[in-house]
Amino acid sequence: MTTPNKIRVLIAEDQAMVRGALAALLRLETDIDVIGEAADGEIAWRELQRLQPDLLLTDIEMPGLSGLDLAQRIQRHELPVKVAIVTTFARAGFLRRALDAGVTGYLLKDAPAEQLAEALRQVMRGGRAIDPQLAMAAWTEPDPLNDRERQVLRLAGDGMSSSEIAARLHLSQGTVRNYLSEIIGKLAVANRIEAARLARQKGWL
Q1: pLDDT confidence of residue 195
Q2: Where 4-aspartylphosphate occurs, residue numbers (predicted)?
Q3: What ranges do the domains of the chain cover?
Q4: Which of the following CATH numbers is that of domain 147-202: 1.10.3660.10, 1.20.1530.20, 1.10.287.110, 1.10.10.10?
Q5: Cα 196 from chain centre
Q6: pLDDT higher for 4 or 51?
Q7: Which uninterrupted H or E stretch holds 72?
Q8: Among candidates 55, 5, 65, 54, which has minimal Cα distance to 31?
Q9: Could you say which of 1.10.10.10, 3.40.50.2300, 3.40.50.720, 3.40.630.30 is the CATH number of the domain covering 7-140?
Q10: Which of 120, 104, 22, 38 is nearest to 71 (CA)?
C-alpha cells in the first residue's frame, strides 16, 4: 500500500541487473515508492497508463520505444508524469532532445548513487536535475537536424536504400535524395554512412 505524499516511481530499464539495482536503491528512501518496473519501452507505456506514477525513471535505449520516445508520448498526451532519464550517454545531442521532450532530470549512471534520490525529489519539486557541464554543451552545440532529416538518416544508417526509405516514409526517391544531400552538407561529411556515424556519436539520432 502506497503511503500518501510518497513519490510514486515507475522504472523502465532493459538491463535486469541495473533495473533491480535502481529499484533497490530507491526503496531505501522513506519518501519514494517504486510502484512498477518495465523491461522495455512498450511495457513501460502500458504501465504508465495503468499505474499513473508521479515520475518515470527511464533509460534512453530500450527495445520497442526508447526513453526519448516515451517522454515525447507523455508530452503529446499531456500526461501528468515527470520524466527523469538515467543513462550512460553523456552526449549533448541526447540531452537537447530530452529537454525538448519535456524531460527535467538527466542523470548519468556513473554519478554517485546518493545523488539519484535527491535528483528525483528536485524534479518533483518542479526543478531540473541535469549535469551542468552536459547542459552547457547541449546549448553550445545545437542539433542541426530536423525531425524528418533525423528519420531519413536513421533509416539510411540502418542500411536502407533511397527507394526503401522513400517507401517507408511515403516520400519520393528524389525527396529522399534531397534530404540526404542536405544532411551530408550540414554535417560536412562525405556520405550518408559518415553522416549517420557522426550523428549517432553526437546523440542526434
Answers
A1: 93
A2: 59
A3: 7-140, 147-202
A4: 1.10.10.10
A5: 18
A6: 51
A7: helix 67-76
A8: 5
A9: 3.40.50.2300
A10: 104
Cell numbers for 148: 524528418
CB 84 within 8 A of CB 106: yes
For the chain, give the number of residues.
Answer: 205
Count the Cβ atoms, other than its own, within 10 Å of residue 107.
19
Cβ–Cβ under 8 Å, residues 83 and 75: no
Residue 59, SS3?
coil
Let me know: does 66 contact 40? Beta carbons within 8 Å. Answer: no
Grade residue 1 by pLDDT with cuts at 50, 70 and 90: very low
Q: What are phi and psi of 90, to 5 degrees?
A: -90, 60
